[in-house]
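Entry:
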Amino acid sequence: MGNIFPFLQLLIIMQRESIMKTKLALFACFLLTAGLSQAQFTHYRFDFVMPPNASGRYYLAQHFQEKYIYIDSGLVFKSHVVFQGLDKNFPRGIYTLLDAKRNSVTDFVVDNDAVFLIAIDSTHSNKGMKVKGSNANSKMFAYLARQDEANQEALALKKQQENGSDTEKKEAQKRLDKLNVEMQDFETDFFKENKDNYFARVVEMTRMPSLPKDLVTNEEKIHYVRNHYWDNVDFNFPNLAHTAQFFNKMNYFFFGLLYYEESDTITKYANQVLRRVENDSAMLRYFLDFICPRYQKSTKHIGWDQVYVNLVKDYYLAGKCPWATEADLYNKRQEVEFLSQSLIGAHGAELWMADTNQSSDPKDWISSHRFPTKYVILWFWDPDCSHCQTQTRELKDLYNKMTSEANKRFEVYAVGYESDVPKWIKYVRDNQLPWVNVGGTNVNVDYQSVYNVHGAPTMIILNERRDIIMNKTLPISQLMDFLDKYEEKQKTIQK
């Protein structure tokens, strides 16, 4: 159950215009919130009539980000589950009924009425829900039933596009376009007719911006969507941060619309929305607590660590986060200093290490920077790691091929990430690894620290200036393509 059609609108637009290749992934916006504004009730009573086979304990819960907050519980008695009490300040909002396994049974809204009955449809369909005593819930289920119908029709039409004849595909697209317009009008009318309805305010918040007709290119369209994504959000709405719809909207913005973008672009759009809420510490914290850890901890996405560093500097270290303790700020500062050494664009720390001869004399150690090749690949690997072995074999084949063709575009500075030095040396010699092999404890700096090496394999690519141009481990099959694209990008920048 949930208001997913606004996200489907964008997905249809993006697929039709080939903005990005993506599977149809409908974001289920569960209608759950923890309210902040208060409705004035002398008492509340939520009576749920359950299907005949229902039994056991059920839970009344609210939703905050990705978690449930449990409020009360009750047992099924004569097919009813009742939650009731005296409370003059019961929070307005959208709640959920959970079964004994903590699965959602239905969502419901607490608005102007706090004494009502909801008969649960045996199939849990929105269309089959029966309500007494709550106009807000009646309207919510009617709205969601129409959404369900639209989504079912849209999915059927997409199947027709995939499997039908050319004529059927064109007819399906026409109907999808028409359905999209119909649902936009339906949502607009619903909000106009129910502006004071709590659920209607949430519906308006989830709506995607309508694209102007004069936008032609895909780039123009996606740029417009990103810049107007938050237009329908009233940041003064007191329950905003406690709705799952807002959580899903925020999540889709950063990890849907901006997923494939570079760090500078992500930072730009992050600042656009964060500046709108930076005077509301609760809302600012809501954003930062969600997005910062996800950018910090990602080990697969190029440049996401840069986004984390940018946001920490712009907000935490700039004194805009009053909830942060001195210990929090100290840790953030340490993390930023640590990560900044290995960000793309930073100058790579020069390593001096002993090769397989393991000389203790620094004069015999080999530099990671002093090679004639344009690029250097720092390859931190472990001979006991099966993935390292596979990737090292592939790298060896590529390296030998370049050497035989007299086209060695990079040198490999392979650091044995192994405490058992004799084992590492034996593997190197048995497998005749053809590049510069270094390892052991004879080293000038802590490479794990300066290059943020968490495990093996880890790849760092340095350019001719020995600046970091890649700090994530690429599959060897993608390595040459990455270098080609990097060089093309540099030509464009130089122009």
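Residues 1-38 have pLDDT under 50 and may be disordered.
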